[in-house]
Amino acid sequence: MDYLKAFIVGGLICAVGQILIDKTKLTPARILVTFVVVGVFLQLIKIYQPLVDFAGAGATVPLTGFGYNLCKGVEKAVSEKGFLGIFTGGLTAASGGIAAALVFGFLVSIIFRSKSKK
Q1: Which residue ranges does UniProt annotate as crossing the membrane (predicted)?
Q2: Which of 12, 30, 42, 56 has the most CB atoms within 10 Å of its CB?
């Protein structure tokens, strides 16, 4: 049942992204930034945590989950370190995902060489 919940919630988030791509003139980059900001906003008003509790990876893997993770990290760091936590909390909370993206991106770039189309 957990897999079904994750699939439905993650699929709905992705469907919203696809609809925005198809029906608006927003660039993909702006849509991605919008998803991160929406994740932060929903966590600020305490709506995203219940969604994460319900759907698990279906809510944390999409980009809204990245915004949620940044906001949650800032909240924790501010409560522990005060004002300095605003600057360090988000990066500390997301550092594992960012490091994994860099490492795997580097490994893929070593394995697959790009070729020019001629």
Answers
A1: 6-22, 29-48, 83-112
A2: 42
